[in-house]
Amino acid sequence: ALKPLGKTLSKPGVRNVVLVEGVRTPFLQAGTTYADLMAHDLARGALQGLLNRTAFPKEAVDYIVYGTVIQEVKTSNVAREAALGAGFSDKTPAHTVTMACISSNQAMTTAVGLVASGQCDAVVAGGVEFMSDVPIRHSRKMRKMMLSLNRARTLGARLSLLGSLRLSHLVPELPAVSEFSTAEMMGHSADRLAAAFGISRLDQDEFALRSHVLAKKAQDEGLLTDIVDFKVPGKDIVSKDNGIRPSTMEQMSKLKPAFIKPHGTVTAANSSYLTDGASAVLIMSEEKALAMGYKPKAYLRDFVYVSQDPKDQLLLGPTYAIPKVLERSGLTLADIDAFEFHEAFAGQVLANLTAMESDWFAQNCMGRKAKVGAPPMEKFNLWGGSLSLGHPFAATGCRLVTMVAHRLKKEGGQYGLVAACAAGGQGHAMLVEACPQ
Amino acid sequence: HVNTLTRQLQDDMMEVLNEVWGNSAVKSAVIISTKPGCFIAGANIDMIKVCKSAEEVSKLSKEGQMMFEKIEKSPIPFVAAVNGTCMGGGLEFAIACHYRVATKSKKTVMALPEVMLGLLPGAGGTQRMPKMLGLPTAFDVMLTGRSIRADKAKKMGLVHHVIDPLGPGVKDPEERLIEYLEEVAVGVAKGLAKKTVTVEKKKGLMQKVQDAVLGIPLVRNQVYKTVTQKVMKQTKGLYPAPLSIIEAVQAGVEKGPAEGYHVEAVNFGKLAMTPESRALIGLYQGQVACKKNNFGKPEREVKSLAVLGAGLMGAGIAQVTVDKGVATILKDTTTEGLARGHDQVYKGLNDKAKKKSITTFERDMTLSFLKGQLDYSGFEKVDMVIEAVFEDLSIKHKVLKEVEAVIPPHCIFASNTSALPIREIAAASKRPEKVIGMHYFSPVDKMQLLEIITTDKTSKDTTASAVAVGLKQGKVIIVVGDGPGFYTTRCLAPTLVEGIRILQEGVGPKKLDSLTTGFGFPVGVSTLIDEVGVDVAAHVAEDLGKAFGSRFGGGNVDVLKTMIQKGFKGRKSGKGCYVYSAKKKDKQVNSGTEEILKAFKLTAPPAVSGDEDVQYRLVSRFVNEAALCLQEGILADPVQGDIGAVFGLGFPPCLGGPFRFLDSFGADKLVQKMKRYEDAYGNQFTPCQLLLDYAKDPSKKFHK
User: In this complex, which of A309, A311, A358 lies closest to B170 when CB atoms are compared?
Assistant: First the structure.
């Protein structure tokens, strides 16, 4: 039996912004079938898939916003390159945003702003991450020498510059995997976070296993309908995520800690893995969508961004964001029918849930009188999450929003809540309301 | 709250240990402190101070040795879980255990600081350290007493395992960290019992090579020799503790543990009875006393501060202030001056980043608290202004008036002057109760002392505020009364003037330096003149000479003035008593200065010009002036006098400061010497009344 619908979160004088459609390429482990592509290829796949599935007239797209984290320097505005390649109109402007793991959330909320303010009627948002290839640079010394070489006028000047070449010039610079401000790896921070909240290795492994089991079930039941096929040139058509692997607790318990050795609890099996993938959504004003004959999936309602200490609370974004977004819309946790949290690490998810259940944390760290409470597990990430489906950094946000919309439809719920943490100690939460069916 | 090793603790500990050993179900054990930020801070100093004889102290050492030996030879493995201070006897306790886990908390510091108190690690430290770290590192740790952070300790092989501090969770992070440390340590202890964890550390190639080389007795002898030479060079033989440490280590390594432990205990007892140890312990306790605010909590905390003048001092003051996260305006009159000052602050912080004591990100964050500017904008919101402009009363008056026109009523005006009386500066103020002196020492980021000067009009709250700011900047603080030269400069001036006299009498700058350093001063008088600046020295000598008359006479200030005319302003100009060049390490005497000295040559009275008399002429003028400051009430107590002299002016630490020196040397003996000098030179050597009083009654002591 359906529960009676609650109030709508529509606001007087503000246009209703809707999610018309959301798609994604299959998410693949880095270094697998997508290995020889480039980021904008995957982005093209998602954008083209969105056009195909909606049959949306290209010229009606007012704007494109796309997220990415690790930038391919050749396509620094990957939004524009991918849109052109995907056959969008060359008259549609596009820009790229970056905000670590909430980059496509930022792309979507930028779109929401453009539509709500009446600047646009139809905006495409999305994000791409390509971890099979990352920019590895020459060392600073080498770069400096090469740039000076460009300016050197005479042969003598060039030769003397070349003469200064030392072996140390040739040591390459890898993209930073640690937080710039603290020089700490995210997994290391996650391990400390789990320890601070007393989250055991067993709890983390169990949660990771749950994610894989639920993802497998969703995959088998055909619930992951946001996936569009992707044809890799010279290879097969990819139509499934390839990182979903339900293991056993025994096997998982054998793994050694990946970051804090030897006593840490975060392992490869209870962390999200490096993933290639792209996602895209069509965001419109409700009015225009209906006028064009579309059946929107959900309203995109209140959202917040938060930020906190990047050292000790790097991944606690959801804990800070959720009470704020609930207050903005006048809802309580009990009103929410479907939760979709980004799963960076099992320990991180469980630390957030523990923090939300803690009066001590609410009072001492958030300046609140009491805890807000944690989501019940029977409404939480029921179709798997980043741990199992994969986590292409800048593509995950759209996956979360599309998934919560699909779940609301399938489960008959009204309100969905999306939350995610991001590097830099930032976080995001958004309320999604099902459209009347 | 800290844990210290006391008799009581020893008894309690033995009781628990016997219980542990008596229970066959206990397979391994963890030693951990539940006190936040403290494992064991070391032995209780008072326990040593009350002992009347070397034998009594040796006995304490032997008891400690025995307890730790029991742990070392325990049938079950012990894990020391260290969070916070782990010093002296605390570290000796930890290294007697079989395995050490430490948190990387900023509070976790390991050290054997006994040498700084004129003692040695007397509970097995001199015996276990060489085995654990190898001879060279063990000597380094014990002879410098330096603090070792957890990650460094891991690298050195002092601890087996480190754990990172935690952020907030569902309880106080410190409390949770101790819990977490316990969880990890218990895991290790269980592993040790089950033999899944081993105590042996993997040795690197370098370590293996070093061990092999040090296995050769001839090489070891060379090590002892080199270390002894180094110690002698640095201490001039004035400090017995380092030599005793070497002796104890050598005894253990060469003649076996029985002899080693015996020598350690005997030497520990002997050292505790030395005046050097008493002096150093006095300094340690004085320093602790001078890190407290005795003027109460200020009405409002200084949250933003402005420094006037971006010169060496101004920029230094700005650096130590932004370093503690206080928003600081650095104001100068020229962009060049400002840029130089900004660079100085940047360099100070960047050097720390290079040494990895802070990250480059922390450097940038710290630097963001600094705002450089040429005008007075924003001064309407500052809580304190410290001026560090040129030492000229009219300039000081000018800036005081300018500042008072823009600052809020509660704002404090502090003057960083080394000699100008504060009441004369405050004479231009509309609110003299808010005016105070804050005399920093150069280089500000390295020198620990801050001399705060109050006038009879300075309010108590102003003083409390200045002390609070100084403490925040990490300073050791003395609060003194107002007068020309206050306390420190007033002691320094007659000493420098006497130094000039000695130079005029034909003792060369190098010889003068070696006589002063040979007495225990870290820097010789000639070098000191160059470091302070010949112009500054002349300025101070002349000003104070005017204020105090013939007592500040002796040497001829014209020597300095002639040097200035020739451009010999000291290190900053490249030439002073010495010639400075970036290339040469060994500095040469400036022949130009030698010529000047010839022109001002005076004949040395043979009766008081031997090496020892030269030393005591310098020291007696210093000490007499210090005593006068106490007599006149410039100094509130001898403790501050000792701390100021040692930390600000480099008075020999082994003597503990002028007052400690009078106690141990005897005021009567010094008065006798001074009378001889008085006969030869005149009233600059006339002992003050306080000295005479103490000379008359040898039972009178400055320190109880």
Answer: A358
Distance CA B371, CA A331 (A): 45
C-alpha closest to that of B682 among B578, B554, B584, B590? B554
Of A188, A192, A263, the CB nearest to B167: A192
SS3 B356: coil
Which residues of chain B neighbour A354 with C-beta distances below 8 Å? Answer: 169-170
Residue A425: left (phi > 0), alpha (psi -120 to 50), or beta?
A: left
Interface pTM, i.e. ipTM = 0.92
CA-to-CA distance for A414 and A399, rounded, in angstroms?
19
3-class SS of residue B305: strand
For chain B of 704 residues, list the mean pLDDT of each consecutive stretch of 10.
Answer: 85 92 95 94 90 96 95 96 97 97 96 97 97 94 96 94 96 96 97 90 80 89 96 95 98 96 98 96 96 95 97 96 97 97 97 92 95 97 96 94 97 94 96 98 95 97 98 98 96 96 96 96 95 91 92 94 95 92 81 95 94 97 98 97 97 97 96 96 96 95 92
Taking residue B356's Cβ as centre, other Cβ atoms within 10 Å add up to: 11
A7 DSSP 8-state letter: -
3-state helix, strand, coil in chain A (%, to 5): 40, 20, 40
CA distance A221 to A38: 31
For residue B90, the SS3 value is helix
Q: Do A351 and B169 touch (CB under 8 A)?
A: yes
Q: Are A297 and A50 in contact (CB under 8 A)?
A: no
Question: In a 3-state reduction of DSSP, which class is residue B555?
Answer: coil
B443 upstream amide cis, omega within 30 of 0: yes
Tell me whether residue B430 is exposed, middle or buried, using C-beta atoms within 10 angstroms of its C-beta: 0 to 12, 13 to 18, 19 or more: exposed
Cβ contacts (< 8 Å) between A365 and chain B: which residues?
A: 168
How far apart CA A200 and CA A204 sit, in angstroms, is: 6
Q: Which amino acid is at B701?
A: K
Which runs of E-coded beta strand occur in B391-431?
412-415
* Number of neighbours of residue B607 by Cβ within 10 angstroms: 11
At B235, list the tokens: 């201490």
For residue B502, CA distances in Å to A176, B328, B374, B471, B567 come to 63, 44, 45, 39, 22
CB contacts of A257 in chain B (<8 Å) are none
Q: How would you write the pLDDT of chain A (437 residues) with one tens digit per residue?
A: 455 677 888 988 899 999 999 999 999 999 999 999 999 999 999 999 999 999 999 999 999 999 999 999 999 999 999 999 999 999 999 999 999 999 999 999 999 999 999 999 999 999 999 999 999 999 999 999 999 988 888 889 888 888 888 888 899 988 877 898 999 999 999 999 999 999 999 999 999 999 999 999 999 999 999 999 999 999 989 999 999 999 999 999 999 999 999 999 999 999 999 999 999 999 999 999 999 999 999 999 999 999 999 999 999 999 999 999 999 999 999 999 999 999 999 999 999 999 999 999 999 999 999 999 999 999 999 999 999 999 999 999 999 999 999 999 999 999 999 999 999 999 999 999 999 87
Active-site residue, selected from the candidate residues B387, B391, B404, B451: B451
Contact B378, B408 (CB under 8 A): no
Contacts of B54 (CB under 8 A, 6+ apart): B266, B269, B270, B272, B273
Looking only at Cα atoms, what is the longest distance across chain A? 85
The rounded distance, in Å, linking the Cα atoms of A279 and A281 is 7
A200 interfaces chain B, CB cutoff of 8 Å: no
- Catalytic residue check, A435: no
Are the C-beta atoms of residues B387 and B413 closer than 8 Å to each other? yes
> In angstroms, rounded to a whole number, what is the distance separating the alpha carbons of residues A197 and B699?
62
